[in-house]
Amino acid sequence: MDLNQAAANFRRAIVHADNLVSVHRHAGGGGRGRRTQETSINRAVVVITVATWQAAVQDMVLSCAAMSEPPAADPFLPAYKVIVGRVQSEVGAFSTPNAQNTRRLLQGVGFDPRQHWAWRQAGGRGQGSIAVQPSDVEARIDQWLKVRHAIAHGHEHLPAVRVLQSVRASASPLADPPLRLVDAEQCLVFFKRVVGLTGDALASHLGAAAPMWA
Questions:
Q1: What gap in Å lies between CA 124 and CA 127, rounded to an integer?
Q2: Which residue, 40, 41, 117, 129, has fewest beta-carbon neighbours within 10 Å?
């Protein structure tokens, strides 16, 4: 496993979320009301996107471990094998890819991505560009994990988290916020960006060329 393979795995996996967005855009009519089938597509986009984020982090960690392997005659090799065994065990147990767990897993191979989780984006409604800070990224990751958890566990209602457009636009808490196509698309765009930033920073940390994540 190296970063090029990790990036190729990510591209192959995330395209299915892209395809579902395309299917939703071409499905249904223009009638009013919540369309159950299209809502299911939105939920599937979020589940696939978060699962692909989880797999990308796991692949990055395994790549980092593999690219750090010393030569066969190096006296550090036995200790390295012990460390790799621990890393592989932690990767296998990585089932909740929230911000804290993600950082902890990557820190186990000597890399903390947090400072790289920052960018500028359009603010909308005449706000100009706004700065997205690492704390904002951590909050969004964790909120999308809550949405994914509710979907995967068949909860009756989704959590009222601000990554959902209906929650951001509401002046009062919502008991059952909808998951719209715009939310699914924003989830997809968000995690693509975070994967790219994390992967490029890890490549720089390792002294390797940055692969193509998108």
A1: 6
A2: 129
Quickly list DSSP for 143-197.
HHHHHHHHHHTT-SS----TTSHHHHH-SS--SS----HHHHHHHHHHHHHHHHH
Question: What are the backbone dihedrals phi and psi of residue 3, each rounded to the nearest 5 degrees, phi first?
Answer: -70, -30
The 3-state DSSP class for residue 121 equals strand
Instruction: Enumerate residues 6+ apart whose C-beta is below 8 A from 72.
Output: none
Phi/psi at 93 (5° precision): -90, 0
pLDDT in tens, 157-209: 999 999 999 999 998 889 889 999 999 999 999 999 999 999 999 999 999 99
Q: What is the pTM for the complete model shown?
A: 0.92
